[in-house]
Design a protein that fits this description.
mainly alpha; 3 domains; 4-stranded mixed β-sheet
Length: 596
C-alpha cells in the first residue's frame, strides 16, 4: 500500500527545492514572460526572413548559402532544416526552436556559475539579469543568429572552465569542438580560439604539450574552415560579396571604434544591480563627488539618446527605425531619459572609483612586498573571462557595421565576470540590487510586450487585406515586410539580387497610432516639455527617418479609406493615458485594387 504521507512530503520537498533553484526560477520567469508577451504570429523579426529563406533552399536540396547572408550561419541553418522536418517550416516553428535553444543557454550559464562557485543568490540575480538583457531576450523570440551562437560559446566556455579545474583532456576537446562549431554560425567564434590558446600557453609555460595544442587547434580549424568556405552564391549587385575582408572595418576606423565611448551607457545600465550597492558602500565624500560629476556626464548621454549604437534596443521601442509614428511613451520622454542617463552616469562613476581604489591598493602592496608574479597566483578562470570580454568587444566594434546586438556576447561574459568578482569580494544582495534588476527586467518586458503585440496585429491585418484581394506586394507595414514581399516576388532564394524592393508602389498601409486620454503623468511630461528652458536644452532626442517610405507619404489622412482598425494593450503607452491602435487603410477603393 502506498504511503500518501511520504509521497506528499517528497512532493513538497521537490517544490521547495525548485523554488530556491536559480535555474528553475529563471526559466520559469522567462517562460511566463514570453507567454504574456504573445509572440506567436507567423511573421519575421528583423532580418530572420533571410534565414527562413535559406532553410527553404536547403529543403529543396540546394545547400549553397545565400549571397545576402553575412554570418557563416550554416550550422544554425542545418539545425533549422532538421527541426522543420519534424515540426514544419514557419516563423512560429523556428521561434519555438530559438526559445528551446535560449533555455539551454540559460542552463549552460547556470553550469558556468557552478564551476565558478558563485553562490545561489548572486547566481539567481545574474541569470535573471542576463535573460532580460534586451538583445538576448528579443533575439530569443526570432531566428536571428545571436542566441544560437551564444548556445555554443556558453557551453564551450563551461567545458573549458571545467578543464582548467580538472585538467581532463575530454573537457578540453569538447570545449574546442563546441567552440569550432560556433564559427559555423558567426565568425566571432575565433575569439574563443585565441583566448583558449593564450590561457593554455600561460598555464603551461614550462611543459607545453603538443597533443593538447592540437586538441585546441584542430576542431577550430576544421569547423572554422567549413563555415568560412562553405559554398556561397555570388551577388550580381556586389561582385565583392565573397571577399571576407569586407567583414572588417577600414584601418582608419579601427582606433576610433575601439576607443569609442558609445558602449559605456550599455555597461553602466546592465551593471546597475551591482553598482547601486557599490555606490551606497562608498565613503560619503565620494558619494557627493559622484553625484556632482554625474550631472554633466548624464547630459552628454542624454544628447545622444542614451544608447547610441542601437539597431535593436531603443527607448522609443525595439527596432524603432521600422516604426512609422514615434511618440512619447513611458520610456521615450525627456524626464525618463534624463533620469536613466543620470543612473547610468552614477553607475559608471561607481565602477571608476572602485577600480581606482583597488589600483591604489595594488600599488601600495607592490611597494610594501615587491613585485612577485607567480603562475600559482593567476586565476585562470578569470583570465579566460577577461580575454573573452576583450575579444568579443574588439571583434564586434571592428566589423563593417556596429549594432548593439553584436555586443550581446560581450555583455554576457562581462556579467559572468562581475558576478564572479562580486562573490569573491563578499558582495551581498542589497534592496537596491533587487530594485535595479527588476527595473531592467520591466523595461525589457514592457518594450517586448508592445513590440510583439503590435507586430502580430500588423501582420494579421496584412493577411486580412490579402484575403480581400490585395496583393502582398501592394501592402506596406515596414521595411522588413517590404523586403520579405520582394524576396518572395522575385524568388530570390540565392540572394543574387539585393533585397531592395523595386517598382514598389503600395496601395494599402498598416500602421500604429495612439489616442490620448487625460492622464496625470502625461500632463506632467507635457508641462515639462513646454518649458522654454527644456525646449532649448533638453528637447527629447528622436529617431530620424523612422519607418517612412522615401518615395511617398504613408500617413493616414481624410482621403484614405480605412479598412480595419483595432486597439491593443501596451503598458508603455497605456500608463501615460495613450490608447494604442493598429489600422489598415488603402489609398483607393478595394474594388480597384483587386486583380492588380
Amino acid at each position: 500500500m502506498i504511503d500518501t504521507g511520504v509521497g506528499k512530503q517528497k512532493t513538497i520537498k521537490i517544490l521547495k527545492s525548485a523554488g530556491s533553484n536559480p535555474l528553475f526560477i529563471t526559466v520559469f520567469i522567462y517562460l511566463v514572460s514570453i507567454v504574456i508577451v504573445g509572440c506567436w504570429g507567423n511573421f519575421p523579426s528583423n532580418d530572420d526572413f533571410y534565414y527562413l529563406t535559406q532553410i527553404k533552399t536547403f529543403s529543396n536540396g540546394i545547400f549553397t548559402k545565400s549571397a545576402l547572408i553575412g554570418p557563416t550561419f550554416i550550422l544554425q541553418g542545418l539545425m533549422g532544416f532538421l527541426w522543420s522536418k519534424f515540426f514544419g517550416l514557419s516563423y512560429i516553428s523556428l521561434r519555438v526552436l530559438t526559445i528551446l535553444v535560449t533555455i539551454f543557454c540559460i542552463v549552460g550559464l547556470d553550469r558556468v556559475f557552478s564551476v565558478l562557485n558563485v553562490q545561489r543568490k548572486i547566481r539567481t540575480l545574474t541569470l535573471i539579469l542576463i535573460t532580460f538583457i534586451p538583445q538576448f531576450y528579443v533575439s530569443s523570440l526570432s531566428f536571428m543568429t545571436e542566441n544560437y551562437f551564444l548556445f555554443y560559446i556558453i557551453w564551450s566556455l563551461y567545458f573549458f572552465l571545467s578543464y582548467i579545474k580538472t585538467r581532463r583532456d575530454r573537457s578540453l576537446l569538447i570545449a574546442c569542438i563546441l567552440g569550432g562549431l560556433s564559427i559555423m554560425i558567426r565568425q566571432y567564434g575565433v575569439v574563443l580560439l585565441v583566448a583558449y590558446l593564450i590561457v593554455y600557453v600561460i598555464s603551461n609555460l614550462k611543459k607545453i604539450n603538443i597533443r593538447k595544442l592540437l586538441l585546441i587547434l584542430i576542431p577550430f580549424i576544421v569547423f572554422g574552415c567549413m563555415g568560412l568556405f562553405w559554398p556561397k552564391f555570388k551577388s550580381l549587385g556586389d561582385p565583392k560579396s565573397l571577399n571576407m575582408l569586407l567583414f572588417f572595418a577600414s584601418v582608419n576606423l579601427f582606433i576610433s571604434r575601439v576607443t569609442s565611448t558609445s558602449v559605456l551607457p550599455y555597461i553602466g545600465y546592465l551593471l546597475l544591480p551591482f553598482t547601486a550597492s557599490l555606490f551606497l558602500k562608498q565613503r560619503n565624500y565620494i558619494k557627493i563627488f559622484t553625484l556632482a560629476i554625474a550631472l554633466p556626464m548624464s547630459y552628454e548621454f542624454f544628447k545622444i539618446d542614451v544608447f547610441k549604437l542601437r539597431n535593436l534596443f531603443y527607448l522609443e521601442g525595439f527596432y524603432a527605425r521600422l516604426m512609422v509614428n514615434i511618440r512619447e511613451n513611458l520610456f521615450n520622454n525627456t524626464l525618463f531619459k534624463l533620469f536613466l542617463s543620470y543612473l547610468i552616469s552614477v553607475s559608471l562613476l561607481a565602477i571608476a572609483f572602485y577600480l581606482i581604489d583597488k589600483l591604489i591598493g595594488k600599488i601600495k602592496d607592490t611597494k610594501n612586498k615587491g613585485v612577485a608574479v607567480a603562475k600559482a597566483n593567476i586565476n585562470f578562470h578569470k583570465l579566460t573571462l577577461l580575454l573573452l570580454i576583450l575579444g568579443f568587444y574588439v571583434i564586434a566594434v571592428v566589423t563593417d557595421r556596429v549594432f548593439d546586438r553584436y555586443l550581446v556576447n560581450f555583455f554576457i561574459i562581462l556579467l559572468i565576470y562581475v558576478a564572479t568578482s562580486a562573490q569573491e569580494r563578499g558582495f551581498s544582495i542589497h534592496w537596491t540590487t533587487i530594485l535595479m534588476t527588476a527595473f531592467i527586467c520591466v523595461v525589457t518586458f514592457f518594450l517586448s510586450f508592445h513590440h510583439y503585440r503590435e507586430l502580430q496585429l500588423k501582420w494579421k491585418f496584412a493577411d486580412k487585406l490579402m484575403a480581400m484581394g490585395v496583393g502582398k506586394y501592394q501592402i506596406f507595414i515596414d521595411n522588413v515586410y517590404a523586403r520579405t514581399a520582394y524576396m518572395e516576388l522575385i524568388n530570390n532564394y540565392d540572394g543574387r539580387y539585393a533585397a531592395k524592393p523595386e517598382n514598389y508602389d503600395p496601395i494599402c498601409f498598416v500602421q500604429e497610432y495612439v489616442k490620448q486620454q487625460s492622464n496625470a503623468l502625461n500632463s506632467l511630461i507635457v508641462y515639462v516639455n513646454n518649458r522654454a528652458f527644456v525646449r532649448k536644452y533638453f528637447a527629447n532626442p528622436t529617431v530620424l527617418n523612422a519607418g517612412l517610405l522615401k518615395e511617398r507619404s504613408n500617413h493616414f489622412d481624410s482621403t484614405d479609406i480605412l479598412m480595419i482598425d483595432e486597439e491593443y494593450p501596451s503598458p508603455v503607452y497605456n500608463l501615460l493615458g495613450k490608447r494604442t491602435f493598429v489600422r489598415a487603410f488603402c489609398t483607393e477603393p478595394i474594388q480597384k485594387v483587386k486583380g492588380i
